Amino acid sequence: MKNDLKTASQSELEQLSGGDMLVRSLQAEGVEYVFGYPGGAVLHIYDALFRQEVIKHFLVRHEQAATHMADGYARATGRPGVVLVTSGPGATNAITGIATAYMDSIPMVVISGQVQSHLIGTDSFQETDMVGISRPIVKHSFLVKRAVDIPATIKKAFYLANSGRPGPVVVDIPKDITNPADLHPFEYPDEVSIRSYNPVTRGHSGQIKKAVTMLLGAERPVIYSGGGVIQGEGAGLLTALVKRLGYPITSTLMGLGAFPSTDPQFLGMLGMHGTVEANNAMHHCDVLLAVGARFDDRVTNTISKFCPYAKIVHIDVDPTSISKNVAVDVPIVGPVISVLTEMLGLIDLETKAQGEHNAKHLADWWAQIEGWRGQECLAYESNTSVIKPQQAVQAVYQATGGGAYVSSDVGQHQMFAALYYPFDWPRQWINSGGLGTMGFGLPAAMGVQVAFPDAQVVCITGEGSIQMNIQELSTCRQYELPVKIINLNNGALGMVRQWQDMQYEGRHSHSYMDSLPDFKALAEAYGHVGIKITKPEELLPGLEAAFALKDQLVFVDIEVDPNEHVYPMHVAPNGSMRDMWLKKGIRT
Amino acid sequence: MRRIISILLENEAGALSRVIGLFAQRNYNIESLTVAPTDDVSLSRLTLTTSASDVEVEQITKQLNKLIEVVKLADLTDGEHVERELMLLKVKASGAQRAEVKRVADIFRGQIIDVTASTYAIQLSGTTEKLDAFINALSESVVLEVVRTGVTGLSRGEKVLAL
Ligand SMILES: Cc1ncc(C[n+]2csc(CCOP(=O)(O)OP(=O)(O)O)c2C)c(N)n1
Ligand SMILES: [Mg+2]
User: Fold this and answer.
1) ipTM above 0.85?
2) Contact with chain A for residue B69, Cβ under 8 A
């Protein structure tokens, strides 16, 4: 027992069990909510939760949903989401949600129970090597070996999860460590420092200066913003920069909302399903400013054909993001807030000295962009007999006045949501961009609703995705979470089917969903309201009726055209960003 | 190009598996790896060799630096450095071979560290190429067993990798 030698001050400290220390540590971090599911290895912790009232626990129906709820909460608030699961199957069920958070750099702290220390390594009941299994999908992880280490470990976990490039942190705690019979002095540390972890606090001034010169000298500039702008709380500054320069801006799927989508300077989303104007502007630009984006393959199309004429400035808080996929000319490693603040200051200085010397070029560039925009790539044909999915999303926009938090799952409905619901504020759009996790939408929306009980929260989903976490309708009932579920029901794994249409001559190998449930009846069975909409004229009234039920979860099952494809779509393989399919059989 | 990356790592359970896991996860290769605690017991020093292009090695070092337990690292092949590897061999040493093996070992400044009536154990240190050359100089039929530590090294001159 290393801790027998107590100093005088230590003996005055409160004596707590490991379980109580953990809960008190979470309280000290300001945690309001924990999303979890109990089991043998965490029963001491659950007992400690029972004996306090500061932290509210949400009991899900599957641990994956706990992680997505915590994730949705984190995406909407910027605060780390907290998950509590038991060892073995509890821990493995959490893996998909941890990977989802990791890919999108979402701050999360996952506490997993572990078998008793002396049983570790013996293949004991419900034992799994959580630290090992989660290793490639966490920012960091801890196996707590002594109860006295709990406060410092939790402090570190929150610090790591929510600083630098955020991400999930796993804290694995063997059951004996939380034993209520063993008491230890409790003191929560005020400060934390980790000698090997020092996230950058500002960008290199020389590089920032170079970037500003390059930007001001640009003839065909484009700003390309990503999820990092939202995570780094840089949306306001980015908007100021874009307004100040008058340059066009496009966004990744993850970055939507950082700059208002309804602003004329916004070209729409870029990438695989990006707009004609955004993808062409990228292809033809001479200076590209990438902020908090990582040149993902869903953005760039064929790397060797990416932005052939551009000098590239790249701002990112994570040095590994820089020149990983695309070599850049001016890398700036730093938090988006400090870098953009510095840039704005320099832009004012430089333009005062030299005037706005590229006004003519900029006007020509905008004229060219307006030409692309004039192609109206998002136009679609509607009719009176069948609801188009695009139309359904637009009706949701109308019924919510554009003011809802919108989560989505993965598939065509996700792309339609991204393209047809203009997001005007950061954190409004909650979506699994990196991992592309079907089953994310509903629990994520629930997490948002927990954070903002009075807000309108919509989950735009598909009949495939919703069934991956449909059991959470029960959780929604228990905690009265009035999420509005908009099921764009095309009776198929639509996105898979679209690829099969385009690349496999329409052979729909297992992309068809036979024997779908009656979703209206299903929602009702869970104690919610279900609405089924099949005709275009019912669309808006049906949605308005659903949104009028403020305090209830409404499952709106909308029968949409099963043959619709998402366009534009990058031509692949070997296409550049401007090579797109515009309609069935028609390409640029 | 062959690289020697030298890392100061927190001497904690699980730290090594993160380094190795990173290589597997990101499809980088490890050719050799040596690791042991340093004079500061809170730190391990790990030396690994890999072959990678300049672009790849930039990613590898950045990704390694991102691991929370990596305290500091250097690519020794960036500058002048010294490197050594230790090898132990067991060879047949009977009849006429006995004298011949000893003669070759002497030329390479190997030391015989164990002797039986029919075998020698030989210790040799040097660069990887030197150890390779020694093995090649012995006829294949005499070599019974080879064990090598992998490369370790230091940069030359004033430069040090320390806290
Ligand atoms: C967990 C998981 N499994 C498989 C996939 C591959 N996938 C991507 S989209 C999609 C179809 C989704 O169908 P649905 O939810 O009905 O949406 P739709 O495309 O029809 O709008 C599939 C199977 C995935 N993204 N996630
Ligand atoms: Mg579908």
Assistant:
1) yes
2) yes
